[in-house]
Amino acid sequence: MALIQTNKDLISKGIKEFNGLLNQQVFSDPAVSEEAMVTVVNDWVSFYINYYKKQMSGEQEEQDKALQEFRQELDTLSASFLDKYRNFLKSS
Q1: Considering 22, 44, 66, 80, which has the largest number of Cβ atoms within 10 A of its Cβ?
Q2: Does the model's pTM come out above 0.85?
Q3: CB environment 44-81: b (16+ within 10 A), e (fewer)
Q4: What CA–CA distance (Å, rounded) separates 81 from 38?
Q5: Per-residue pLDDT tens for 12-59?
Q6: How far is it, in rounded angstroms, from Cα 47 to Cα 49?
Q7: Is the predicted pLDDT of residue 60 greater than 80, yes or no?
Q8: Among 23, 24, 75, CA closest to 49
Q9: How many C-alpha atoms does 7 have within 13 Å on its Cβ side?
C-alpha cells in the first residue's frame, strides 16, 4: 500500500524539521555522556512521532504505515547524529 500524499508531505516536513533540530546542535565541553545524548535523541524522536501522529490521515493501517516509515527516517537521522557525537566524544 502506497502512502497517501498528505502523509508523505507530513513525513517530509517532519524529517526536514528534525534534521534542522539536529543540525542546530553544537557540541561543546563539558559534553554530556553518550548515554545521556542517546536518551535526549530518543526523546526527540518520540516527541516528533507523537506530534505528527495526530496529523496523519487515512485509515488506521495507512496511519500506522506512515508512522512506521517516519520513525525509520528519524532513526536513520538519529543514528548519523549519534555517530557524529561519538566521534566528538572520542576527539575531546
Answers
A1: 66
A2: yes
A3: bbeebeeebeeebeeeeebbebbbeebbebbeebbeeb
A4: 10
A5: 999 999 999 999 999 988 889 999 999 999 999 999 999 999 999 999
A6: 6
A7: yes
A8: 75
A9: 23
